Structure formats: C-alpha cells, structure tokens
Amino acid sequence: MARRRNLPIVVLALAVIAVHLLAAAAGKPQYLTQLTMAGYYSLVIVGLTLLMGYTGQISLGHAGFFAIGGYTSGLLCTYNLHASSGRALVSLLHAAGLLVAGQDLYGAEILVVRPWVACVVALLVTIAIAYLVGKPVLKLRGHYLAMATLGFGTIVYKVVLGSSLVGAADGISDIPAFPLFAGLAVTGKSALRTQNYYLAWGLVLGAMALLTNLIHSRVGRALRAIHGAEDAADAMGVDTARYKLSMFVLSAGLAALGGVFLTHYNGGIGPSEASIMKSVRYVAIVAVGGMANLWGALIMGVLLNFLSLRGSFGSFDDAVFGLILLAIMLFAPDGLLRAEFVRRLPGLRRVFGQKAEP
Amino acid sequence: MSPDLLFQYLVAGITYGTIYAIVAIGFNIIYNTTGIINFAQGEFVMLGGMIGVTLNAFLPVPLAIAGAVMATMLVGALIEMLFIRWLRRPSVLRLIVITIGLSIAIRELALLLWGEGVRALPYFTGTAVSSLSIGDVHISPQVLWVLGISAVMVAALNFFFARTLLGRQMRACACNREAAQLCGISAKNMVTLSFVLSAGIGGLAGCVISPITYVQYDSGTSLALKGFTVAILGGLGNSMAAIAAGLLLGTLESFSIWVMPAAYKDVIAISILLLILFVRPSGLFGNAEAARLKDY
Q1: Which among A246, A277, A258 has a CA at the least distance from the CA of A73?
Q2: Is A107 helix (H, G, I), strand (E, B) or coil?
C-alpha cells in the first residue's frame, strides 16, 4: 500500500526531470521560469486542496496568507535598519548574525535582515496569524465561513494597498536573492534558472509527499469524517475544532512558503498577489482538480498557472478563471475527471471508474 | 469638531448607510427564499448604474432609470433560470462558488462592454455643487433623492410582502418550502421572483447613488461586502433590522476617517463583519434563542 502511494511521487520526480530535458532539447529554457513560478503557486493550491477538498472548509482568503508570507520576507530583506543601528535591539540582532550589512546601488550603507531569517520570521508570522484568524473563523460554516475568510483576505489586500511602509500600490521591489547554500540562491537570474526550477519542484515534491501521507493516515480519515458530517465526527470522538484549525494553519503555512520563495524569485511583490481574484483563482483550480484530489489540483494548478503566466489568456485572465469556476461547479462539481460525461467514455471508465469517492 | 462638521459627517454616514441597507435587503430577499447568499448582489448595483448611464445617452433620466431597473431584473431572472434553477440538491459550497463565478463573469463582461471608465448619471436635480443649506450645514439634493427613493422602496417592499398575494406566497416559501408547495405555490417560481426583485432593488440603488459615488465595472465588490456586513449585523434575513444596521455602519465608517486614514475605511467595515461573526453571528438584533437552533 505504502509503495503504491509513493509511486506518484516518483512519477512526478521523473516528470520534473523529463520536462527539464524536453525544455532544454527544444531550446526553450525560458519555460522553466514560468514552471518554477507555477510550482510555487502549486504549493498554495495543494495546501488549499487539503483544506477545501479533504476537510471541507472553504477559504476565500488564501491569497492573503501568500501575501503575508511574501510581504513579510520582502519587507525584512529591504527595510534599512542602518539609521537605527545604534539601538540596542538592532545591535543585538547584528551581533547575533541575523542582519547583513552592505551597500545599495548608489553606494549608501544599508543594514537589512538576512534572507533566511526573514523567511523563517515570515513563516512564523503567517502561522501565528492563521492560528489567530482560524480559531474563531473555523467555528463558522457555509456562507458565514466563506464571507469571513473573504473579509480576512480583503483586509490584507486593503492594508498592503494602503500602507506606504510596504510601498502601497507599487509593492516592494529590489528584494535581494535568497542564498541557500554554496552556488544556490532563490533568484530570477537566468544563470540559476535550472537550479531554481529543481528547487521549486523539490519543495512541491516534499509538500506532496507530506500531504499524500497525511491524507492516508489517521488524520486523513478524521478529515474525511469531518467533511462528510462534522457533527457525527464530533460525536465519534474526533476533535473537529483541532483538526480543522491545524489543517487551516498547515495550508496557510504552505501558502506563505510559496509566497516567500516566489517573492525572492521575482525580486518583488505587489498588492495584486493579495487580491480576492487571486484567492478565487486558487479556489477555482482546486475545484477543477476535483476538490478532494491532490494530484488533480496539482496538475490543473501547474497547467493553468503556466498558461496564465505565459499570457495565453491575454486580458481575459480573470474572466477565464471565473468562467472555469462557474462551468465546473455547474456541470462537474466533483471535478473534471469525475464528471459523469467523462466517466461514460468507455476507455476511461476503467481508469477513473474505481476512483470514486475517497 | 464643530457641530456643523459633525452633522456633515452624519449626513454622509446616513447616505452611505442607506445604500448599504438597500444592498443588504437585496441579500435578505434571496436568502429568505433560497438560503443562498448571492455573492453577485453587488454586481446588480453596478449593472443598474452602468445601464442607466448608457441609456441616459439618448433617454431622459427617469426613463433611463426605469430601463436600467428592468434590464437588471431581466439579468436577475436569467441568472436564476440558467444557473440555479435546474441544480438538483446543490450543496452550500457549490452555490457559493457558483455565485462567486457569476459575479466575476458579470464584472468581466462589464469591463468588456464599458471599459475601465468611471461613469455617473447627472444629478437628478441641480448640479454637483448645488446644495440645500440648513443653517451652516449643506446637503446635496442628491442625498435627499437617495434617502427618499430608498424610503419609498422599503415601504413598497413592505407593502408587497405584507399585503399582496405574491408577496405572501414568497414569505410562505421562506417559512416552509414543503408546506408552501403543498398549498400549490410554485417554490421555483418564487425563487426566480426573489432574484428578480433583488436585482431590481440593486439596479435602482445603482442608478440613484451613481451621481454621488460614481460607478465602475468593479464597484460591486466592495458594496457587496458592505451590504453583507450590514445584513449580518442586523441578523441575516431581517430587512428592517438591516436598515438600522446600515445606518450604524455608514455612520461608523464616516466618523472613522477622523481616527484612521481614509485608505483604511473599508477595513473598518470588514473588521466589524468579522467581529460580529465571531461574537454574535445572529446579528445585533437577532434573537439569541432562535439563533441556537440555526447552523452558522
């Protein structure tokens, strides 16, 4: 059983390598850039799949967590502490090796937080916020939960849009690379394109390995029980509130991880990453993938984000995702692959037929 | 702060509050008959305003408004018939996502049709600078139009639900769908009707407020969020309480500019929404006893 479960992970790893070789052979290495970005977005999507598909809790605010992660890391890496370097706290941090001094483009002295420290802080901040928001929000159900998470997302968007500290409508730019170890840094420089591609997909592989094992464990069964009938799960002794909260925090953490890495990869982040349309897009992708289907969500996430990043949808980007959402929910609420008309195709029946409700 | 300025803020708050209340009533009408929160409610307001402005190019204002309201009602009917009516036992999650998808589709269609431009109907009487002066306080005549038309609208709705057969049938469906069907009421038609009514109210509101707030393809979203806040604040489904809640939120928001930058104005409203959802999801005027029987 365990071997069968890990087989898709191996297939994914092979696919990642194959795509790299194909792109190199076809002379289109620039595709790897968009695939790297799509990979980071996929982290948000698989996390949201766990929350929406398996736990049955909708979130219309996940772009908010992505943005909190990206913005926190970006702000810490660019906010110049040089002017306050005399302060006790700043010198203490400097002495502890958490800060890095340098010069900006114009030769002025700058003192900023080290990227890996910023990354850890960003993740911790997001997890703390997710915990504080999730605790009361997850008591709500249905429309109320949807509106509350939508409200949270809107607050994050309005705050980053209105705060001059994080560049208001311009966002944060010139975010430094995130050096991991010798020769590898999270950066958009084309020299490190291939390394970054493998880094992003390594993270996705790790997340998928974690999540696929999680949903097949005791936790996963508890989550499906909550999805099926929350009160019944509660009565059977499943601590529903705790499970819902930990999945909310886990998926927010994955979103923040994607946010941090993509921000360093792009060298900047803008308020559009926090917009409600982004949250809706993530929900749309989870829905197209089949709600409770991690692999479906991953495939759709990579495909749609890749097309969107390549500009295939032109100025109809938002419209495409809106229509996809509408069409899927109207005609195939269990996802494209489980739709009645797809299952009726004779050849596919054997493949998808047994893969009914998990 | 001088009393005049205080009053000026109050008037602004009441104007916006009235608009939020109208949007909230639109939410409530659909919620009462179907149990759906229509996330596309704000888009009805935007559509009303946009169509009104477009028709005003060759029609006088009253006719343009009438046309806009009819067109929005038609859109409401079409939405229900095409996207909701034929679903068999849809889950709440599915309905939420469908109405979100609809709101995006309408918004993008509006962007395609009308572009990103900001539009407005002309002031119904006078111009943007004309004002009625009461002592040192100045009120734009459009504010009186907004308040007046909203009051008439609420009175008409009350009459409709209390006195007419159709209104009573809708209320019967809201109370108990099965029982209403057994009495020969077509619940499906009542749902369509609720979408039509709700769209019409939204469309009219969109026309009336456009001289003050202007209308743009994406102006529906924030209105919907405010309207929902008000609906929750008053207790979902309770339209009279929504008016009180609307005035409360409008005034709070208007005075919030005092203590916070205007950029955070929306944050106030949403924070109130979250707070109310956490603390008292049955709303300020909701019955705690009845609330215990409901599922939030």
Answers
A1: A258
A2: coil
What does pTM read for this prediction? Answer: 0.86
Tell me, what amino acid is at A237?
G
**Does residue B141 lie in a domain region?**
yes
* Residues contacting residue A37 through CB under 8 Å, at least 6 positions apart: A200, A262, A265, A266, A305, A309
Cα–Cα distance between A234 and A54 in angstroms, integer? 16
Q: Is residue B167 part of a domain?
A: yes
Do residues A282 and A48 make contact, with C-beta atoms less than 8 angstroms apart?
yes
Selected residues 214-253 of chain B with any CB under 8 Å from a CB in chain A? 221, 225, 228, 232
Q: For residues A103 and A109, is the Cβ–Cβ distance under 8 A?
A: yes
Residues of B in contact with A148 (CB under 8 A): 273-274, 277
Question: Taking every pair of C-alpha atoms in chain B, what is the biggest distance, in angstroms?
Answer: 61
- Report the domain count for chain B: 1
In this structure, of A198-212, A329-343, B104-118, the range with the lowest mean pLDDT score is A329-343
Determine the Cα–Cα distance for residues B224 and B152; give it in Å rounded to an integer: 22
User: What are the Cα distances from residue B266, in Å, to A354, B157, B225, B257, B273?
Assistant: 49, 29, 9, 11, 11
Distances (CA, A) of A280 to A59, A316, B92, B104: 9, 15, 16, 9
What is the C-alpha separation between A75 and A122, in angstroms, rounded?
A: 10
Q: Could B96 and A277 be called an inter-chain contact, meaning their C-beta atoms sit closer than 8 Å?
A: no
3-state helix, strand, coil in chain A (%, to 5): 75, 5, 20
pLDDT tens digits along A21-72: 888 888 787 888 889 999 999 999 999 999 988 888 889 999 999 999 999 9
Closest CA to B93 of B82, B103, B101, B104: B101
Asked whether residue B290 is assigned to any structural domain, the reply reads no
B87–chain A Cβ distance below 8 A for any pair: yes
* Closest chain A C-alpha to B267 CA, distance in angstroms: 6
Contact criterion met (CB < 8 Å) for B93 and A142? yes
Are residues B231 and B275 in contact, defined by beta-carbon separation less than 8 angstroms? no
Classified as helix, coil or strand, A92 is helix
- Among A17-31, A334-348, B90-104, name the one with the lowest average pLDDT: A334-348
Q: How far apart are CA B198 and CA B47, in angstroms?
A: 13
Q: Structural domain of residue B9, as residue ranges?
A: 3-220
Tokens 């990227």 correspond to: A115
